[in-house]
Amino acid sequence: MRVEYLEEPLIEFSNDFLCDDPKKGLTISGFFSLSHQNHKSEIQYAIIGRKIDIESVVDWVGKIKYPIEATKEVLINNEVEIIDGEVENLTIEDDEYLTTNDLQLDDQVTYRYNKQLNPDFPGFNKDSIFRCELLNDKSNNISVKGQELKKILKSNKTKVEKVELIIDLYVNAYLRLEEFYDVRPDVCLLVIPTDVFNKLSSISYGKQWINLRRKLKAEIIARSKNLFPVQLLLESTVTGKTKGKQDFSMIAWNFCVAQYYKTGGCIPWALTQIDKESIFVGVSFHKVLNAENNLMRSSVAQAFNREGKGIVITGRQFEWNTKKTRVAAPHLTYLYAKELIQKVINTYKELNGYTPKRIVVHKTTTFWDDFINKEFAEANGFIDGAKELLGDDAEVDLVSIRSTKIKLLRSNGIYPVLRGSLLKIDDYSGILYTTGYIPYYRTYPGVHVPMGVKVDVIGESTLRQVCEEILALSKLNFNNCNYYSSLPITLTFSQKVGEVIQYLPEEKEPPNRYYYYM
Fold it and tell me: How many CB atoms lie within 10 A of CB 7?
Protein backbone atom coordinates (compact mmCIF):
# COMPACT_ATOMS: atom_id res chain seq x y z
CA MET A 1 0.00 0.00 0.00
CA ARG A 2 1.18 3.53 -0.73
CA VAL A 3 -0.15 7.07 -0.39
CA GLU A 4 -0.21 9.62 -3.20
CA TYR A 5 -1.56 13.15 -3.38
CA LEU A 6 -4.08 14.17 -6.04
CA GLU A 7 -4.00 17.85 -6.97
CA GLU A 8 -7.08 19.95 -6.27
CA PRO A 9 -9.29 19.95 -9.39
CA LEU A 10 -9.74 23.23 -11.25
CA ILE A 11 -13.15 24.57 -12.20
CA GLU A 12 -13.96 26.82 -15.14
CA PHE A 13 -15.67 30.21 -15.11
CA SER A 14 -16.43 32.86 -17.71
CA ASN A 15 -13.84 33.53 -20.43
CA ASP A 16 -12.11 30.17 -19.76
CA PHE A 17 -10.79 31.36 -16.38
CA LEU A 18 -9.60 28.41 -14.26
CA CYS A 19 -9.46 28.36 -10.47
CA ASP A 20 -9.94 25.86 -7.65
CA ASP A 21 -12.09 28.13 -5.45
CA PRO A 22 -15.71 28.92 -6.51
CA LYS A 23 -15.90 32.30 -4.76
CA LYS A 24 -12.53 33.46 -6.06
CA GLY A 25 -13.39 32.36 -9.59
CA LEU A 26 -16.75 34.13 -9.51
CA THR A 27 -15.20 37.29 -8.05
CA ILE A 28 -12.54 37.48 -10.77
CA SER A 29 -14.35 36.23 -13.86
CA GLY A 30 -18.06 35.61 -13.19
CA PHE A 31 -20.46 32.81 -14.05
CA PHE A 32 -19.47 30.17 -16.62
CA SER A 33 -22.64 30.91 -18.61
CA LEU A 34 -21.58 34.53 -19.21
CA SER A 35 -19.40 33.44 -22.11
CA HIS A 36 -21.43 30.42 -23.23
CA GLN A 37 -24.64 31.95 -24.66
CA ASN A 38 -26.94 30.70 -21.89
CA HIS A 39 -26.63 33.50 -19.35
CA LYS A 40 -29.72 35.23 -17.91
CA SER A 41 -29.31 38.82 -16.80
CA GLU A 42 -32.61 38.82 -14.88
CA ILE A 43 -34.07 36.32 -12.42
CA GLN A 44 -37.77 36.82 -11.76
CA TYR A 45 -38.81 35.70 -8.29
CA ALA A 46 -42.18 35.41 -6.55
CA ILE A 47 -42.77 35.26 -2.78
CA ILE A 48 -45.21 33.20 -0.72
CA GLY A 49 -45.55 33.95 2.99
CA ARG A 50 -47.23 36.19 5.50
CA LYS A 51 -47.43 39.85 4.48
CA ILE A 52 -44.65 40.69 6.93
CA ASP A 53 -42.51 37.92 5.39
CA ILE A 54 -43.08 39.23 1.87
CA GLU A 55 -42.00 42.71 2.93
CA SER A 56 -38.95 41.32 4.72
CA VAL A 57 -37.86 39.24 1.72
CA VAL A 58 -38.10 42.22 -0.65
CA ASP A 59 -35.91 44.25 1.73
CA TRP A 60 -33.53 41.31 2.24
CA VAL A 61 -33.05 40.70 -1.50
CA GLY A 62 -32.56 44.45 -1.92
CA LYS A 63 -29.54 44.29 0.40
CA ILE A 64 -28.01 41.50 -1.67
CA LYS A 65 -27.76 43.88 -4.62
CA TYR A 66 -24.89 45.64 -2.84
CA PRO A 67 -21.49 44.48 -1.53
CA ILE A 68 -21.57 42.73 1.86
CA GLU A 69 -18.53 42.53 4.10
CA ALA A 70 -17.80 39.09 5.53
CA THR A 71 -17.41 38.57 9.27
CA LYS A 72 -14.68 36.60 11.00
CA GLU A 73 -16.30 33.19 10.72
CA VAL A 74 -15.14 29.95 9.20
CA LEU A 75 -17.23 27.24 7.60
CA ILE A 76 -17.41 23.74 9.01
CA ASN A 77 -18.18 21.58 6.03
CA ASN A 78 -21.03 19.14 6.59
CA GLU A 79 -19.66 15.64 7.10
CA VAL A 80 -21.65 12.66 5.88
CA GLU A 81 -21.41 8.93 6.37
CA ILE A 82 -22.81 6.10 4.26
CA ILE A 83 -24.66 3.57 6.41
CA ASP A 84 -26.18 0.49 4.76
CA GLY A 85 -26.27 2.29 1.44
CA GLU A 86 -27.98 5.42 2.76
CA VAL A 87 -26.24 8.80 3.07
CA GLU A 88 -26.50 10.12 6.63
CA ASN A 89 -25.56 13.60 7.88
CA LEU A 90 -23.13 13.63 10.80
CA THR A 91 -23.85 17.26 11.63
CA ILE A 92 -26.98 19.35 11.74
CA GLU A 93 -28.85 19.95 8.50
CA ASP A 94 -27.88 23.59 8.12
CA ASP A 95 -24.23 24.53 7.66
CA GLU A 96 -22.38 25.11 10.92
CA TYR A 97 -19.79 27.74 11.65
CA LEU A 98 -17.21 28.29 14.34
CA THR A 99 -15.44 31.43 15.43
CA THR A 100 -11.77 32.15 14.80
CA ASN A 101 -10.92 31.47 18.44
CA ASP A 102 -11.39 27.77 17.80
CA LEU A 103 -8.73 27.65 15.08
CA GLN A 104 -5.73 28.40 17.33
CA LEU A 105 -4.26 30.91 14.86
CA ASP A 106 -3.17 34.46 15.59
CA ASP A 107 -5.67 37.22 14.80
CA GLN A 108 -3.87 38.69 11.80
CA VAL A 109 -3.36 35.37 10.02
CA THR A 110 -6.83 34.11 10.97
CA TYR A 111 -8.56 37.13 9.48
CA ARG A 112 -6.60 36.81 6.24
CA TYR A 113 -7.43 33.12 5.89
CA ASN A 114 -11.06 33.71 6.81
CA LYS A 115 -11.29 36.19 3.96
CA GLN A 116 -10.29 33.34 1.66
CA LEU A 117 -12.80 30.95 3.19
CA ASN A 118 -15.50 33.57 3.43
CA PRO A 119 -14.69 36.55 1.17
CA ASP A 120 -16.76 39.71 0.92
CA PHE A 121 -19.81 39.37 -1.31
CA PRO A 122 -19.50 41.68 -4.37
CA GLY A 123 -23.22 42.42 -4.77
CA PHE A 124 -25.70 40.75 -7.13
CA ASN A 125 -26.64 43.22 -9.86
CA LYS A 126 -26.13 43.86 -13.58
CA ASP A 127 -23.10 46.07 -12.97
CA SER A 128 -21.28 43.61 -10.70
CA ILE A 129 -19.23 40.64 -11.84
CA PHE A 130 -22.41 38.53 -11.83
CA ARG A 131 -24.06 40.62 -14.58
CA CYS A 132 -27.43 39.54 -13.21
CA GLU A 133 -30.16 40.87 -10.91
CA LEU A 134 -33.15 39.56 -8.97
CA LEU A 135 -36.50 41.13 -9.91
CA ASN A 136 -39.86 40.87 -8.18
CA ASP A 137 -43.25 41.54 -9.75
CA LYS A 138 -45.44 42.45 -6.76
CA SER A 139 -48.50 40.94 -8.41
CA ASN A 140 -46.79 37.55 -8.14
CA ASN A 141 -46.51 37.70 -4.35
CA ILE A 142 -49.13 35.53 -2.61
CA SER A 143 -49.83 36.04 1.09
CA VAL A 144 -50.60 33.35 3.66
CA LYS A 145 -52.63 34.57 6.63
CA GLY A 146 -50.59 34.66 9.82
CA GLN A 147 -53.71 34.27 11.97
CA GLU A 148 -54.56 31.06 10.16
CA LEU A 149 -51.09 29.69 10.90
CA LYS A 150 -51.41 30.63 14.59
CA LYS A 151 -54.84 29.02 14.75
CA ILE A 152 -53.45 25.75 13.43
CA LEU A 153 -50.48 25.80 15.82
CA LYS A 154 -52.72 26.44 18.85
CA SER A 155 -55.34 23.84 17.90
CA ASN A 156 -55.78 20.47 19.60
CA LYS A 157 -55.01 18.60 16.40
CA THR A 158 -52.12 16.15 16.22
CA LYS A 159 -48.77 17.32 14.91
CA VAL A 160 -49.28 15.28 11.76
CA GLU A 161 -52.63 16.99 11.15
CA LYS A 162 -51.07 20.40 11.79
CA VAL A 163 -48.33 19.70 9.24
CA GLU A 164 -50.93 18.67 6.66
CA LEU A 165 -53.00 21.83 7.23
CA ILE A 166 -50.01 24.16 7.04
CA ILE A 167 -48.73 22.47 3.90
CA ASP A 168 -52.19 22.87 2.35
CA LEU A 169 -52.07 26.63 3.01
CA TYR A 170 -48.75 27.01 1.23
CA VAL A 171 -49.53 24.62 -1.63
CA ASN A 172 -52.85 26.37 -2.32
CA ALA A 173 -51.01 29.70 -2.41
CA TYR A 174 -48.49 28.19 -4.84
CA LEU A 175 -51.30 26.90 -7.07
CA ARG A 176 -52.87 30.39 -7.12
CA LEU A 177 -49.53 31.83 -8.19
CA GLU A 178 -49.18 29.12 -10.82
CA GLU A 179 -52.57 29.95 -12.28
CA PHE A 180 -52.61 33.74 -12.11
CA TYR A 181 -49.00 34.99 -12.44
CA ASP A 182 -48.42 37.97 -14.75
CA VAL A 183 -44.72 37.34 -15.37
CA ARG A 184 -43.68 33.71 -15.01
CA PRO A 185 -41.26 33.50 -12.08
CA ASP A 186 -37.98 31.66 -12.46
CA VAL A 187 -38.16 30.71 -8.80
CA CYS A 188 -40.65 31.00 -5.94
CA LEU A 189 -39.32 32.02 -2.51
CA LEU A 190 -41.44 30.39 0.16
CA VAL A 191 -40.96 31.68 3.73
CA ILE A 192 -41.49 29.42 6.78
CA PRO A 193 -42.20 31.34 10.04
CA THR A 194 -39.92 30.61 12.98
CA ASP A 195 -42.65 29.26 15.26
CA VAL A 196 -43.87 26.86 12.55
CA PHE A 197 -40.35 25.59 11.92
CA ASN A 198 -39.48 25.23 15.60
CA LYS A 199 -42.62 23.22 16.39
CA LEU A 200 -43.15 21.18 13.23
CA SER A 201 -39.92 20.99 11.22
CA SER A 202 -39.51 17.29 11.96
CA ILE A 203 -42.11 15.14 13.72
CA SER A 204 -42.37 11.42 14.43
CA TYR A 205 -44.91 9.34 12.54
CA GLY A 206 -44.88 5.73 13.66
CA LYS A 207 -41.38 4.44 13.02
CA GLN A 208 -40.66 7.24 10.55
CA TRP A 209 -40.15 11.00 10.68
CA ILE A 210 -41.96 13.63 8.64
CA ASN A 211 -39.80 16.51 7.45
CA LEU A 212 -41.93 19.61 6.89
CA ARG A 213 -39.74 21.11 4.17
CA ARG A 214 -39.29 17.87 2.20
CA LYS A 215 -42.99 17.05 2.38
CA LEU A 216 -43.95 20.58 1.35
CA LYS A 217 -41.76 20.34 -1.75
CA ALA A 218 -43.22 16.92 -2.53
CA GLU A 219 -46.80 18.20 -2.26
CA ILE A 220 -46.01 21.10 -4.59
CA ILE A 221 -44.49 18.69 -7.12
CA ALA A 222 -47.44 16.30 -6.81
CA ARG A 223 -50.16 18.92 -7.25
CA SER A 224 -48.51 21.35 -9.65
CA LYS A 225 -49.52 21.55 -13.30
CA ASN A 226 -46.98 24.18 -14.33
CA LEU A 227 -44.03 23.63 -12.03
CA PHE A 228 -41.31 26.19 -11.36
CA PRO A 229 -38.52 25.76 -8.78
CA VAL A 230 -39.05 26.58 -5.11
CA GLN A 231 -36.56 28.05 -2.65
CA LEU A 232 -37.58 27.57 0.99
CA LEU A 233 -36.42 30.32 3.35
CA LEU A 234 -36.65 30.42 7.12
CA GLU A 235 -38.00 33.63 8.63
CA SER A 236 -34.91 33.80 10.85
CA THR A 237 -32.64 33.76 7.78
CA VAL A 238 -34.44 36.73 6.25
CA THR A 239 -34.62 38.72 9.50
CA GLY A 240 -30.99 37.98 10.39
CA LYS A 241 -31.92 36.44 13.73
CA THR A 242 -30.29 33.08 13.03
CA LYS A 243 -27.86 32.62 15.90
CA GLY A 244 -24.57 30.82 15.39
CA LYS A 245 -25.11 30.04 11.70
CA GLN A 246 -23.94 31.61 8.43
CA ASP A 247 -23.10 35.29 8.27
CA PHE A 248 -24.94 37.44 5.72
CA SER A 249 -22.16 37.43 3.13
CA MET A 250 -22.03 33.63 3.06
CA ILE A 251 -25.83 33.43 2.84
CA ALA A 252 -25.73 35.85 -0.10
CA TRP A 253 -23.10 33.77 -1.92
CA ASN A 254 -25.05 30.54 -1.47
CA PHE A 255 -28.45 32.05 -2.22
CA CYS A 256 -27.45 33.76 -5.46
CA VAL A 257 -25.55 30.79 -6.88
CA ALA A 258 -28.51 28.49 -6.15
CA GLN A 259 -31.10 30.82 -7.71
CA TYR A 260 -28.93 31.34 -10.80
CA TYR A 261 -28.70 27.57 -11.32
CA LYS A 262 -32.43 27.11 -10.73
CA THR A 263 -33.28 29.31 -13.70
CA GLY A 264 -32.79 26.20 -15.81
CA GLY A 265 -30.05 26.79 -18.34
CA CYS A 266 -27.56 28.84 -16.32
CA ILE A 267 -24.30 27.27 -15.15
CA PRO A 268 -22.30 28.94 -12.32
CA TRP A 269 -19.09 26.98 -13.07
CA ALA A 270 -18.03 23.80 -14.88
CA LEU A 271 -15.48 21.04 -14.40
CA THR A 272 -12.33 20.99 -16.53
CA GLN A 273 -11.04 17.47 -15.82
CA ILE A 274 -14.25 15.74 -16.89
CA ASP A 275 -14.75 14.54 -20.46
CA LYS A 276 -17.68 16.22 -22.23
CA GLU A 277 -18.99 12.85 -23.39
CA SER A 278 -19.04 11.29 -19.92
CA ILE A 279 -21.96 11.29 -17.53
CA PHE A 280 -21.87 10.30 -13.88
CA VAL A 281 -24.79 8.44 -12.37
CA GLY A 282 -25.23 8.19 -8.62
CA VAL A 283 -27.44 5.35 -7.35
CA SER A 284 -28.61 5.41 -3.75
CA PHE A 285 -31.39 3.91 -1.66
CA HIS A 286 -33.95 4.99 0.89
CA LYS A 287 -36.68 3.33 2.92
CA VAL A 288 -40.23 3.73 1.67
CA LEU A 289 -42.40 5.82 4.00
CA ASN A 290 -45.33 3.93 5.57
CA ALA A 291 -44.10 0.53 4.44
CA GLU A 292 -45.85 -1.79 6.90
CA ASN A 293 -43.09 -4.40 7.08
CA ASN A 294 -40.22 -1.89 6.82
CA LEU A 295 -38.81 -4.03 3.99
CA MET A 296 -39.63 -1.76 1.07
CA ARG A 297 -36.86 0.24 -0.54
CA SER A 298 -36.63 2.58 -3.50
CA SER A 299 -33.70 3.74 -5.58
CA VAL A 300 -32.78 7.19 -6.81
CA ALA A 301 -30.43 7.76 -9.73
CA GLN A 302 -28.90 11.20 -10.26
CA ALA A 303 -26.96 11.86 -13.46
CA PHE A 304 -24.62 14.82 -14.02
CA ASN A 305 -22.29 16.01 -16.75
CA ARG A 306 -19.27 18.33 -16.47
CA GLU A 307 -21.49 21.43 -16.43
CA GLY A 308 -23.59 20.20 -13.54
CA LYS A 309 -26.70 19.66 -15.65
CA GLY A 310 -28.43 17.10 -13.50
CA ILE A 311 -31.38 14.78 -13.89
CA VAL A 312 -33.17 12.67 -11.30
CA ILE A 313 -34.58 9.23 -12.08
CA THR A 314 -36.53 7.09 -9.62
CA GLY A 315 -36.65 3.33 -9.74
CA ARG A 316 -39.50 1.04 -8.82
CA GLN A 317 -40.07 0.12 -5.20
CA PHE A 318 -38.62 -3.24 -4.24
CA GLU A 319 -38.42 -5.48 -1.20
CA TRP A 320 -35.13 -5.98 0.59
CA ASN A 321 -35.32 -8.63 3.31
CA THR A 322 -32.14 -8.66 5.37
CA LYS A 323 -33.15 -11.95 7.00
CA LYS A 324 -33.08 -13.65 3.61
CA THR A 325 -30.08 -11.87 2.11
CA ARG A 326 -28.16 -11.54 5.40
CA VAL A 327 -26.92 -8.17 4.15
CA ALA A 328 -28.25 -4.82 5.40
CA ALA A 329 -27.31 -2.71 2.37
CA PRO A 330 -29.70 -3.14 -0.60
CA HIS A 331 -28.73 -4.49 -4.01
CA LEU A 332 -30.59 -4.57 -7.34
CA THR A 333 -31.68 -7.44 -9.54
CA TYR A 334 -30.21 -7.76 -13.03
CA LEU A 335 -33.40 -6.52 -14.73
CA TYR A 336 -33.91 -3.66 -12.25
CA ALA A 337 -30.36 -2.36 -12.80
CA LYS A 338 -30.66 -2.73 -16.58
CA GLU A 339 -33.98 -0.87 -16.70
CA LEU A 340 -32.70 1.89 -14.39
CA ILE A 341 -29.54 2.68 -16.37
CA GLN A 342 -31.43 2.61 -19.67
CA LYS A 343 -34.02 4.99 -18.24
CA VAL A 344 -31.20 7.33 -17.21
CA ILE A 345 -29.53 7.22 -20.64
CA ASN A 346 -32.78 7.74 -22.57
CA THR A 347 -33.86 10.63 -20.33
CA TYR A 348 -30.43 12.25 -20.55
CA LYS A 349 -30.49 12.03 -24.34
CA GLU A 350 -34.01 13.47 -24.47
CA LEU A 351 -33.16 16.45 -22.25
CA ASN A 352 -29.65 17.22 -23.52
CA GLY A 353 -29.87 16.25 -27.18
CA TYR A 354 -26.93 13.84 -27.36
CA THR A 355 -25.89 10.38 -26.20
CA PRO A 356 -22.91 9.97 -23.84
CA LYS A 357 -20.06 7.63 -24.75
CA ARG A 358 -18.97 6.85 -21.20
CA ILE A 359 -21.14 5.98 -18.20
CA VAL A 360 -19.76 6.06 -14.67
CA VAL A 361 -22.06 4.66 -11.98
CA HIS A 362 -21.44 5.71 -8.38
CA LYS A 363 -23.15 3.61 -5.74
CA THR A 364 -23.12 3.65 -1.94
CA THR A 365 -22.92 -0.16 -1.75
CA THR A 366 -20.71 -2.72 -3.46
CA PHE A 367 -21.67 -4.07 -6.88
CA TRP A 368 -22.82 -7.68 -6.98
CA ASP A 369 -22.40 -9.71 -10.17
CA ASP A 370 -23.81 -13.09 -11.19
CA PHE A 371 -20.85 -14.84 -9.54
CA ILE A 372 -21.68 -13.34 -6.13
CA ASN A 373 -25.47 -13.58 -6.42
CA LYS A 374 -27.35 -14.67 -9.55
CA GLU A 375 -30.60 -12.98 -8.44
CA PHE A 376 -29.03 -9.61 -7.61
CA ALA A 377 -26.52 -9.41 -10.48
CA GLU A 378 -26.72 -5.62 -10.67
CA ALA A 379 -23.22 -5.15 -12.12
CA ASN A 380 -24.13 -7.22 -15.16
CA GLY A 381 -27.42 -5.34 -15.47
CA PHE A 382 -25.77 -1.90 -15.49
CA ILE A 383 -23.12 -2.93 -18.02
CA ASP A 384 -25.46 -4.83 -20.35
CA GLY A 385 -28.11 -2.09 -20.18
CA ALA A 386 -25.63 0.64 -21.13
CA LYS A 387 -23.94 -1.31 -23.92
CA GLU A 388 -27.29 -2.38 -25.37
CA LEU A 389 -28.14 1.30 -25.96
CA LEU A 390 -24.67 2.74 -26.61
CA GLY A 391 -22.89 -0.15 -28.32
CA ASP A 392 -20.03 -2.40 -27.27
CA ASP A 393 -17.50 0.43 -27.61
CA ALA A 394 -19.15 2.39 -24.81
CA GLU A 395 -17.14 2.60 -21.59
CA VAL A 396 -18.88 1.65 -18.35
CA ASP A 397 -17.23 2.10 -14.95
CA LEU A 398 -18.89 0.90 -11.76
CA VAL A 399 -17.59 2.77 -8.71
CA SER A 400 -18.48 1.84 -5.15
CA ILE A 401 -18.07 4.71 -2.64
CA ARG A 402 -18.46 3.74 1.01
CA SER A 403 -17.53 5.11 4.41
CA THR A 404 -14.50 3.68 6.14
CA LYS A 405 -13.08 3.95 9.64
CA ILE A 406 -9.48 3.91 8.39
CA LYS A 407 -7.76 7.19 9.27
CA LEU A 408 -4.49 8.61 8.00
CA LEU A 409 -2.42 10.84 10.29
CA ARG A 410 0.35 13.25 9.25
CA SER A 411 3.72 12.79 10.92
CA ASN A 412 3.90 16.33 12.37
CA GLY A 413 0.48 15.96 14.03
CA ILE A 414 -0.46 19.65 13.68
CA TYR A 415 -2.94 19.38 10.84
CA PRO A 416 -4.95 16.43 9.52
CA VAL A 417 -4.37 14.57 6.27
CA LEU A 418 -4.57 16.60 3.05
CA ARG A 419 -7.75 16.57 1.02
CA GLY A 420 -6.89 14.55 -2.08
CA SER A 421 -4.77 11.99 -0.26
CA LEU A 422 -5.21 8.53 -1.80
CA LEU A 423 -4.17 5.37 0.03
CA LYS A 424 -3.83 2.84 -2.78
CA ILE A 425 -4.70 -0.70 -1.65
CA ASP A 426 -4.43 -2.29 -5.10
CA ASP A 427 -4.93 -1.23 -8.73
CA TYR A 428 -8.70 -0.86 -8.35
CA SER A 429 -9.24 -0.17 -4.66
CA GLY A 430 -8.20 2.61 -2.30
CA ILE A 431 -9.07 5.07 0.47
CA LEU A 432 -9.69 8.63 -0.78
CA TYR A 433 -9.82 11.68 1.49
CA THR A 434 -12.35 14.14 0.09
CA THR A 435 -12.03 16.26 3.24
CA GLY A 436 -8.92 17.44 5.04
CA TYR A 437 -6.25 20.11 5.14
CA ILE A 438 -6.45 22.51 2.18
CA PRO A 439 -3.11 24.00 1.03
CA TYR A 440 -4.92 26.93 -0.64
CA TYR A 441 -6.36 28.01 2.73
CA ARG A 442 -3.38 26.71 4.74
CA THR A 443 -5.83 25.26 7.23
CA TYR A 444 -8.50 22.59 7.70
CA PRO A 445 -11.98 24.20 7.77
CA GLY A 446 -13.57 21.58 10.02
CA VAL A 447 -13.74 20.21 13.53
CA HIS A 448 -13.99 16.45 12.95
CA VAL A 449 -11.05 14.22 12.07
CA PRO A 450 -11.37 13.80 8.28
CA MET A 451 -13.01 10.55 7.21
CA GLY A 452 -11.95 8.83 4.03
CA VAL A 453 -14.17 6.91 1.64
CA LYS A 454 -13.43 3.42 0.32
CA VAL A 455 -13.39 3.48 -3.48
CA ASP A 456 -13.63 0.27 -5.54
CA VAL A 457 -13.61 0.33 -9.34
CA ILE A 458 -14.99 -2.16 -11.85
CA GLY A 459 -14.10 -1.12 -15.40
CA GLU A 460 -11.29 0.10 -17.65
CA SER A 461 -10.58 3.41 -15.89
CA THR A 462 -7.75 3.61 -13.39
CA LEU A 463 -8.22 4.18 -9.68
CA ARG A 464 -6.41 7.52 -9.94
CA GLN A 465 -8.68 8.78 -12.75
CA VAL A 466 -11.82 7.72 -10.88
CA CYS A 467 -10.65 9.40 -7.66
CA GLU A 468 -9.71 12.60 -9.50
CA GLU A 469 -13.24 12.65 -10.91
CA ILE A 470 -14.74 12.12 -7.45
CA LEU A 471 -12.77 15.11 -6.15
CA ALA A 472 -13.93 17.21 -9.10
CA LEU A 473 -17.56 16.21 -8.64
CA SER A 474 -17.33 17.19 -4.96
CA LYS A 475 -16.98 20.80 -6.21
CA LEU A 476 -20.20 20.73 -8.25
CA ASN A 477 -22.67 21.48 -5.45
CA PHE A 478 -24.63 24.54 -6.61
CA ASN A 479 -26.73 24.57 -3.45
CA ASN A 480 -23.87 26.49 -1.85
CA CYS A 481 -20.60 28.12 -2.80
CA ASN A 482 -18.27 26.01 -0.66
CA TYR A 483 -14.80 24.92 -1.71
CA TYR A 484 -15.91 21.29 -1.65
CA SER A 485 -18.46 18.80 -0.32
CA SER A 486 -17.45 15.56 1.36
CA LEU A 487 -19.08 13.42 -1.36
CA PRO A 488 -19.45 13.85 -5.13
CA ILE A 489 -22.62 15.61 -6.31
CA THR A 490 -23.86 12.25 -7.61
CA LEU A 491 -24.35 11.15 -4.00
CA THR A 492 -24.39 14.36 -1.94
CA PHE A 493 -28.10 15.02 -2.28
CA SER A 494 -29.28 11.45 -2.57
CA GLN A 495 -30.68 11.52 0.95
CA LYS A 496 -32.55 14.79 0.44
CA VAL A 497 -33.90 13.86 -3.00
CA GLY A 498 -35.03 10.52 -1.63
CA GLU A 499 -36.77 12.23 1.27
CA VAL A 500 -38.75 14.39 -1.16
CA ILE A 501 -39.64 11.51 -3.46
CA GLN A 502 -40.82 9.25 -0.63
CA TYR A 503 -43.76 11.60 0.00
CA LEU A 504 -44.94 11.41 -3.61
CA PRO A 505 -47.68 8.98 -4.64
CA GLU A 506 -46.14 5.91 -6.28
CA GLU A 507 -48.05 6.60 -9.49
CA LYS A 508 -46.69 10.17 -9.70
CA GLU A 509 -43.72 10.51 -12.06
CA PRO A 510 -41.31 12.97 -10.38
CA PRO A 511 -39.76 15.78 -12.45
CA ASN A 512 -36.40 14.88 -13.96
CA ARG A 513 -34.59 18.18 -13.44
CA TYR A 514 -32.35 18.19 -10.39
CA TYR A 515 -32.98 21.83 -9.44
CA TYR A 516 -36.59 21.07 -8.43
CA TYR A 517 -35.22 19.17 -5.43
CA MET A 518 -32.62 21.74 -4.31
Answer: 11
